[in-house]
Amino acid sequence: MTELETKLGYAFKDASLLETALTTPACRMDRSDVEDNQRLEFLGDAVFGLLSADAVFAAYPWEREGTLTVRRTHLVSGAALAEAAERIGLRDHLKRNAGAAPLAPRAKALADAMEAVMGATWLDGGLDAARKVFGKLDLPIDEKLNEWSENPKGHLQVLAQARHPPRKPEYVVDKSEGPSHAPTVTVTVSVAGFGSATATAGSQRAAEVAAAASLLEKLEARSDLKIPGDQIADGQQGGPFAF
Fold first, then answer.
1. Which of 36, 41, 83, 115 is catalytic?
2. Which of 36, 41, 45, 112 is catalytic?
């Protein structure tokens, strides 16, 4: 069993499936005949959908469909899968094109490869194998849920507009490096009275989302600002604005 298989908790009978799952589309820049992981990614996305639905259904028997849907989406979001890929060291095993720039934290290629690995696992060992790998990934099934979990930019904008006078988040691209198919983008968001935060990701949009989430974390720690309480899908809401 290889180091990666040990971390996945599953030994592949057909090692070529795992090799394909780790082959990014960028490899086709060097070899046009290489089989990349996109087909396995497509399959793995569906497998993650099934397993995540099963997991949240079992973990939250009292919750309604709407909240379960949000939880399922959050559980296997691109960010969650990229973080899982980082935890198991998947980036060290990816096959990329010669001279490729280092992947940004939480890069989309990591989430895509994680889905591809799950697709390969399903083909190699079926549902039981997929469940084993899913259980090893430590996905955020117990994470506290609020209405803004998937939309930190929207949350930040609502908070900024509630100030007197209303403010608007400003996003600035500090730098963009790497090839067009795999860029590394750094963005800073700032709001008057709130401060600023900077994040790096594999696209401008992803970097903006990460920067907004980072600034929200800073705001939650400030004693001079009251951030609205969590609002979950059934309509219950916490404390009010206090600006």
1. 115
2. 45
Helix 78-87, helix 108-136: angle, nearest 10? 70
Cβ(161)–Cβ(154) below 8 Å:
no
Whether 45 sits among the annotated catalytic residues: the reply is yes
Asked whether residue 230 carries a pLDDT value surpassing 80, the answer given is: no
Longest dimension (CA), the chain: 63
pLDDT confidence band for 106 (50 / 70 / 90): confident
CB half-sphere exposure, 138, CA atoms < 13 A = 8
Give a three-class secondary structure readout of 107-131. CHHHHHHHHHHHHHHHHHHHHHHHH
Name the residue among 224, 170, 217 with its Cα closest to residue 192: 170
Q: Is 170 a catalytic residue?
A: no
pLDDT of residue 223: 55
